Amino acid sequence: MGRPPAKPPSTARSPSLDRGLLPSLMGYALRRAQSAVFADFAATFAKAGEALTPGEFGLLVLVDRNEGLSQMALARALGIDRSTLVPILDRLQARDLLVRRPSPTDGRTHALALTSAGAKALARFGRLVRAHEKRIASGLSASETRTLIELLGKVRASARSL
Amino acid sequence: MGRPPAKPPSTARSPSLDRGLLPSLMGYALRRAQSAVFADFAATFAKAGEALTPGEFGLLVLVDRNEGLSQMALARALGIDRSTLVPILDRLQARDLLVRRPSPTDGRTHALALTSAGAKALARFGRLVRAHEKRIASGLSASETRTLIELLGKVRASARSL
DNA sequence: GCAGATTGTTTGGGGAGCAAACAAATTTGC
DNA sequence: GCAAATTTGTTTGCTCCCCAAACAATCTGC
Questions:
Q1: CATH classification of B27-159 is 1.10.10.10, yes or no?
Q2: Residue A33 has pLDDT above 80, yes or no
Q3: Domain at A47-159: CATH code
Q4: Does residue B89 approach strand D to less than 7 Å at its CB?
């Protein structure tokens, strides 16, 4: 609605534009930070000749630390639908990072596990992730980083009440 | 990568599983918070009988505050490709929230503007967004909220160095 | 042993994102 | 002034993420 046209209407090709209330919104800051972090993650891996998304890294860590995990349990841990997980596992399996073994105790489920190549790759990935984390935290002190993670956890807890 | 099997291997259906180093990663916290916030945003709008994504809201605010914006300028402001923007504008235009007018000064560009219905809708959306923001910040003090937004800005600045 | 639940998969649909190619229009170079 | 280069919006093609519904195989409760 009628905003007073206070700013001069950009003499040149407006180097920055009016973002209104957006900069005061947490959701907006979150979205922009997340997309920048994602880009940095991708760039870090690309420069090392590797290809992996943050989601795939999280998945591999979960499988590594919880051997024999079922797809349902993994999907729940990741917060995605079990049908969404299928093509992701297909891809990682095609890259020989992970296997779907038949569960010895339940014929319906698969026991997920890293291959030896997957475990070796995860070690490399972990080093890249640490470098990436170091870079995106380079503007923050150690205590600020801790604070940020803590506050993000609180936001997540508040937001989940659907 | 042999981790000592310290934890008992989950007697029941493991209510929580080993997340390894993930909880210490800023990128991980960011991703989880973002997805929870997104879900809350969608739920807030759904409950009010409206449908809008955070990205669409940001786009509408930008068009509202910068009348006559071109699609290229908008795409740059949103950090997306100009070809990505096309179907998004198509959808908003089909909902009669926004129009592509021919620019009087440059025959190549469109001058984007909200329709009157779009301006009215944006006012409603703004109220919903404020309620949503209030909910996701309900676990934080006012100063914590400010700190969070500030830290997210710093992260974004550090991450952009591709 | 059989009804009901669970698991993984497939299919179908929607959205977000990029790259490359293209026509129309503008700006630049001379 | 006019040809060449650039910019803008669009289309097409590709990849990826996400969900819902349906289905067969398997397990569980009783």
A1: yes
A2: yes
A3: 1.10.10.10
A4: yes
